[in-house]
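Entry:
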Amino acid sequence: MSEERRQKSRRTFSYYMRVLDDASGKLIGHLSDIGTGGFKLDSKYAVPLDVDLHLRIDQTGEISKKSFVAFSARARWCKPDREDPTMFNVGFQLIEVSAEDYDIFVKMFNTYGKQAAGQDDVDTLDYLFQ
């Protein structure tokens, strides 16, 4: 197991949140799984691997007074969705995020993340490194 596969909590995401390219505003995908070190998106697009992307999640004001969270993330894997082959599942690793935005990310995890049945609260982020 590589050093990057640290023990971190992760949960399925119960809230429909869009992840956008920060510069263009283009929709990259929707959160489907969130962890304190990364996340999984459902996307209409195959996302290039190992490229740092500058992303944004717009906020509704329920978690923070800020209107968005900005961060850099890197796609570690991308594969067609098992149920809908027109969609892709993409595992991202957080690369760079301000302390303030990371705190908001953790609040999103705690507020909207649902622990899967039978899953321990602490789980490896293997889905990032498939």
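The longest helix spans residues 99-112.
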